[in-house]
Design goal:
It is a single chain. The chain is mostly beta strands and 127 residues long. The chain is 0% helix and 50% strand. The strands form two sheets. Strands 2, 4, 5, 6, 9, 10 and 11 form a seven-stranded mixed β-sheet that branches. A four-stranded antiparallel β-sheet has the order 1-3-8-7, with no helix packed on it. A hairpin with a 6-residue loop joins strand 4 and strand 5. It is globular.
């Protein structure tokens, strides 16, 4: 059974930082690209960042470029999202997701390409 469990969310003031973690189990982690998405109230889920199976390829949404960094540890089966200079508009539920990409270094920003999803962790940024 595949499980993706996010942690690290919380309440932070604008300008602050948070580090999200997503622990994966039940899948061959190093064969999956991993992504972070977020969904604010009354808005559609949107792409935040993704990383290839080996960690060499990353893409980041323009809205968070220069502030958020995605990384992964294939020994710990964990993907991270370091979020700096947080803004109130970053407030959302953050989800991690896994996209099977064996022998492919490509990464996707499309929600439909991802096979498994976590339950999400709330991030609230106060002004």
């Amino acid at each position: 059974q595949v499980q993706l469990v996010e942690s690290g969310g919380g309440l932070v003031q604008a300008g602050g930082s948070l580090r999200l973690s997503c622990a994966a189990s039940g899948l061959y982690f190093s064969r999956y690209a991993m992504g972070w998405f977020r969904q604010a109230p009354a808005k559609e889920r949107e792409f935040v960042a993704a990383i290839g199976w080996g960690g060499a390829t990353t893409i980041v949404a323009d809205s968070v470029k220069g502030r958020f960094t995605i990384s992964r540890d294939n020994v710990q089966n964990t993907v991270y999202l370091q979020m700096n200079s947080l803004k109130p508009e970053d407030t959302a539920v953050y989800y991690c997701a896994a996209d099977y990409k064996y022998q492919s270094s490509t990464v996707s920003s499309r929600t439909g390409d991802y096979d498994y999803w976590g339950q999400g962790t709330q991030v609230t940024v106060s002004s």
